[in-house]
Each structure stands twice: as C-alpha cells, then as structure tokens.
C-alpha cells in the first residue's frame, strides 16, 4: 500500500489524532477493506513525516477501538470484529477477488521497482527510460503551442489509429528498409500493449513462446497471464539459436519466437546480419512467426546496426514492433505494429475492445515530429548525449568494478549487462541497495535463476547520481562478496 | 479489409497496371497472406476510384498469374498455388492464428460500425459520441498553447496515474458527493479499459456477471472474452432488479452487478434515489459488488440526477467508473476508477502490465481543465447544446415517426431508445440504411433477441444530417413494415 496523505502540521488537532481520524475514515469509507495489511510502522512514520512513537500511539488507539488488529509476526490488519462489522459487515470479500483474478500480478520485485520509482530521492541505476534531462520537453511544448486540431481527430480513433500518423510511420519505416503500407500498420499505446494484443489476439492457451534468455519477457507477463508458456533459448550457448529452435520445434510446435535483435533488453547484444538471415531462413522452414521488438534500434552510437528482421522478410513472417517510448518520451504511450494485413486487422479489432484507441494528442504530436523531421534531428542529439553517458559510466565501472565484475562496451541502447564475479545478486542485495537509496534491476527478473547479473542503465540517472550510485554499489558488493 | 491506397492518375503507367503491381506487392510482401479474401469488385472500384471494368482486367491478370483465385459464390482470394508458393511458400498459417486467438472478435455488426464510422460521407444516427462541433477544440488548443511540463511527467507514469490528475479527480468527485482520496483512485484510458482491468484483475473464469438488459455490455466483450458469462436482468420486468438478483444469487453466486444507473446506454433510463438505496442494501446483504459505469451523469439538462451509487455507499461495495470521453473528448482516452485501495492497487498493477499507464499529454490536459474550472464551464455550455439537439430530434420524431415508433423524452445523456411498432430491426434494416448512407446502432447489439429497438443518438450528427437521416429512416421503415 502506498500512502499519499500526511497530517496538517498547522492544524489545532494533534498529529496522532489526525492520523487516527484519517485511518478510521479509510476503513469506514471502505477504502481499506477488512483484512487490509497496513504498511510497517517505520514506513507509516516516513509517509506521514512523524515520529514512530506517534504512529504507535495512533495504532494502539485504533486497536483499542477494535478497528485494527495485530497478528504476531505478520503485521497490523484492518480487523474483522464487531465494531468494524457494524460499519462494513457485508462488504464483498475483495481480498478473494484480488487473489483470484485471471491476470498474474507483476513479480514482487517489479512491483517494488514500479513503486520505488515514484520516490524522487532514489537513485535509479537500472531504469530503462530516458532521464528527464534527455526528454525534449521544451520542444514538445513548442510543438503543442502551434498545434491545431481537426475536430474529427479528437473523436474516437479508427481501429488502426490516426491515418496521418500511420502514413508518417510508413515513411519512417522505409528509412529502415521496411516496406509497410499504412494499412498494414497499427498504432498501439507502447510496445507492451503490442505484446498484450498479440498474446490474446493470435495465440491459444498452452501455446509455446520461444525467446532469448535472459529476456524482457520474464519481467512482464503478457503471455504467461494468458496461459502460454515460455521457453528460453540462449544466444551464449554452444548451439546457435536456430539449432535450438529446430530441436525444440521438432518436439512441440512453437507458436512464435520473440526477440529484441538490436541493443537487447537486458543484455544489449545485437544480432549480426548473417545471424538474422539464418534465423529468418530457419523460421521460414519451420513456419515459426517472429516478433521483432525493435524499440532501441534508433539509438546507435557510431555505426548503424544491421537492418531490422522485417526489412529482410519477404514472407510476412515478422510482426515488427516499434515505439517512441525509448527515444522521444514514454509518457506519449505511442508505438506501432507492422505485419500482414489480416493479422493487423485482427489486432486492431481487439484494441478497439481494450481501450478504443490511443490518445489523439499523443498521436498528433508524434505525427508532427515524424513529418517535420524533428524526430530525426532529436535522435542525432540524443545519440551523442547517450554516448557521453555511456563513456562516463564505463569510466566509473573501470574505477570501481575492476575485478568485481565484467561488462561489454555498448554500441547503442541503454544497458550494461554487468556480470559480477560472485553469484550474490539476490533479494538481499536489492534490499541493501534500497537502504542506501539505490534502486537496482537485478538479473533474476530477466532470468529466474540468474544471480550474477545486474542490468545497469546509463540512460536515466544523472552523472552525479551515477558517480555516487556506482561507487556505493561497489562498496555494498564488496561487503557481500 | 480496408484499403487506403489508390492509383496515381498522373503516372505514365496505366491504372490497371498500377493496381496489378500494387496487389502483387501486397502479396509478395506478405501483407496479404495466402487465403486472404479480397474486397468485392465494387468496393475495390470505390476504394481505388476507378471503373469496375479496370478492376476486372486487373484481377483477371492476377488470376492468370496464379496469384489470385476465385471460389464460386464466395469471392476472390490470395491463392495457394505454385507461383505464389514460390514467393511465400512457408509463411506461417496466419489465418489459423487469427481464428484461434483467445480474445473474442467484436460482433460483426460492431466491426462494421467501427469501420463505417471512418467514412465521412455516412450519417451516423446512433453514434455515442459528441459531434466534432461539440468538442471544445479551440479551447483545448488554447490550453496546450500555455502548457508547460515538468519533464518528469513525460516519463513513465506511476501505477495509479499522474498524482495531480488524481487529486483533481478527487476534488471533482466530491462535488458529486463521492469521497475518494487520490490513493483510492486510478487513471485509465477510458471506461472500457476500466472494465477490461476489472475483468482480468478481479474475476475468475466462469464468473457470473449480472447486468441490466438491454446493455452496453452486450456490445463489448471485456467479460465474455475472459470466459465469464452474463446474465441480464430487466428493469422493465414485473420483478424489481433487486428481487431478480436475490433469486438468481440464491442459485449461483454472482460475482458482480454492472449498471449504468444514470442516462443508461442504450436505454437512457435513470435509477431513482430510492431504487439506488434498495439496490445497495440488497447488494450489501448478498455481498455482490457493483460496477457503477457513470460516464453520462454530467450531461443532465434541467435537473441534476440522483446521487451516484458510490456516494451512497459506506461499505466499499461500489467500483465507480468515470470518464472524459462523453463530455470533453473521446480522443483524450482518460477515465478513472474509484474503489477500495487494495482493489485499486491490484488494478493499477495490471494496468502497468497492459500499457504502462495513460498518455501524459492527455492526463496533463484533463488535470488543467478540472483545476481551472474550465471543465465545469464547458459542461454548462454543452448541456444547453445537447438539450437543443434533443428538442430538434424530438420534433423530427414527432414529424416522421408518429405511429411508427414510441420513445421517451431524454432528461440527459445522448440516447433515444426508439421502439418500433414492428420487429423489423434486423441485419436487413441495417443494410438498407447503409445503402442510403445511414449508419444505425440496432437494438440487437445490446440485447441479442431485440428486433424492435434502435439506439438513436442526438449527440453526433449535425441538424442537417439528423433531419435528412430521420426522414429517410422513416421511409425505409415504412417500406419494410
């Protein structure tokens, strides 16, 4: 539970009384149903900005009133006793609803990360997102200042999304060697929604999804929640991925292969052109469609990466996912899928059932940025900035992690896949780091048994934060090794 | 299939050759996989803006090339023969993927409606959306002109959505008598996404959903697609809805009750305060949570409607859904859910897995409109405009539908639930209307066996279109009766 209220220090009422009243209100309004677990005393004291003793007094009073109860060793809960039963006796058993919903919850670590990310004091060493300093905020404001809308565009969107935006994306994809007409493109609210739509729109329960491991797909659940299972293939193994695919597909037919072939998340590896051609030729033979998650490829530093799989695909084998989240702004929530028109129309129909289309404001802004050339200008600047951050971070790693870890030099994207010399990447390390105000993306969220890697990102934290954070992290690790 | 390409009339190449080349390209690129059904010759001719004979020549050539084939009585398809097999022999069987995906497709009629709505020549007599003329386009542009962003707000959103927006919604809900703290609120991309999240976040497969019939829920599939089944209760029946609920719930436990209690979609009925209190008391006793879909209640004409269910609920029984789509602009894709905090946190966690939050631009704009009072000023104007449209439409009905149909006088919202004197509301009527360029929302999409009702809307079509459309519709109906 995350609390966004605090007592009023200039009120005549005592702090503890304000807290008592507020908690009572949460319970009587039904916002905290019976069985709700309260945050720890320490965390309540932090949220409210009061001493722990004030919290203890307030909670004791509420226990005396019968509104709360403590269960030894497991914390304080909204109680189920008479007084409470009087106010909310017949409340539905929400706890049961929450527990039994179809969709899997996020991994606990991911939930924690999502929540800690809202804390501005924390240093985010793994965040896969551009730093606020790298977002073209002023230029976006400028575009909005000169925006004029056709009123029709503020209505419900057509199923595949705004036509002008799709035309702009089609032209943009041509620069990457991809021929996709506007009709074979659809707009989505970011790459994750693309995966969600593919999952419920094209696959059956029990489908087998192949993917490279470690994988972004282990940190999100679009396929798992719909009852599909994931089989990880290793690019580092003795066998090539096509060989592994062929062997597995011989036993049970795979429904698709998911890959981030350029500046991978989390490993930052990139498939060579030859590897891409081999993959396509094998997938064609085995009739395995490919999802190409291509959200980082605009972020190369010195040399353009090999062409996207989709540009090498003459067979309608590849569903290509792109996005503005990693390059322009995640807050826009704009991405796209290119693929065979029958597939796109099916996915667009489902999108109409999910959210009736993406934000017209966001679609309009992205179309403007693509059409005016502002997007490519922004990319030129962004690449240099990211490269500087990469270099700065590599210098820090050389200073503080020599002998402690190994890493590759990124040629683009956001990430350094840091391999520690000892398998100490576990929830304890995560917690130790949080204590020092450092938020990590540990390897085990991308590969369940991985206790050696950390996904570092040079895209988010400021230089100052990187300097302090990486040094502090090295100290924590030295302590644990 | 919906085609957005046309031949270039100033090209040296003949029209039919351009069409042949373009269709070839669609096939060889894999955009039209094997088995794809082509639109009819007439519709291709329309799309391309050429004579039907040009289409026939082009298709004949492609058939001769072996790329297309005709199946007697069912149309022209991308063929599966040798030449084609050479270019795309081992394409995945996309048709099979599309057919077997988990999520149900939209009803055919709804798909048609979604598609016809993109045709600007058509008169939309049933569209549940504000007319472009009623959207405050200029004022939205004005707000954007003075917008300045905190760069952080352009990053990924926190799970429940932008904090300032949630604070503004909390204050706005207070004016409706609803106490919901910002922590017990989450932002969604429109009301439909709220239903989607509730469906996969809180319910088990096989759950029973009670709802009023006819119902908006029959025209969208958030629950059906996740394997729940719907049981319709009738407000017009001899038994009251609470009595029906009690009886049904005695046999099998209902998971929730869905209602649009104010200016219902499609019937435009409104529950009285007494009916609301009775419903709450029964649902409390039977422990059935309520989803209150409250997206029309700001649109009253003369008298404010009874208070929302949520404002009368001291037990955390109600999940309250609101939205800006029906009042400010559907293109913003901004709505919200208010409910017990544990439920909201579960739903917010799932939203993070679906699309990582709603558009920052849209969230920012709505916060501005709520905070500045512009939203309520806009509502004052909008109510008068809608009332004028209602009156205009009622005059037309009196002119053209006396003796043909019955209707109620709407006190707010968008809809007139027109009851024809004969059960002729069927796919044929829909088709006859389309022939005259009129798009209808027939009763059977809200209630499968309903062949007497049409959902008319006075919110979308212009006065001119309403005048022509309603007169023409009456002629079509007279012809069929």
From TrEMBL, chains A, B:
Keywords: Aminotransferase, DNA-binding, Pyridoxal phosphate, Transcription, Transcription regulation, Transferase. It comes from Peribacillus castrilensis. Its cofactor is pyridoxal 5'-phosphate. In the C-terminal section; belongs to the class-I pyridoxal-phosphate-dependent aminotransferase family. InterPro entries: Aminotransferase_I/II_large, HTH_trans_reg/aminotransferase, PyrdxlP-dep_Trfase, PyrdxlP-dep_Trfase_major, PyrdxlP-dep_Trfase_small, Tscrpt_reg_HTH_GntR, WH-like_DNA-bd_sf, WH_DNA-bd_sf. This is PLP-dependent aminotransferase family protein. Pfam families: Aminotran_1_2, GntR. SMART domains: HTH_GNTR. CDD domains: AAT_like, WHTH_GntR. PANTHER family: HTH-TYPE TRANSCRIPTIONAL REGULATORY PROTEIN GABR, TRANSCRIPTIONAL REGULATORY PROTEIN. Residues 13-81 form the HTH gntR-type domain. One of its GO terms (molecular function) is DNA-binding transcription factor activity.
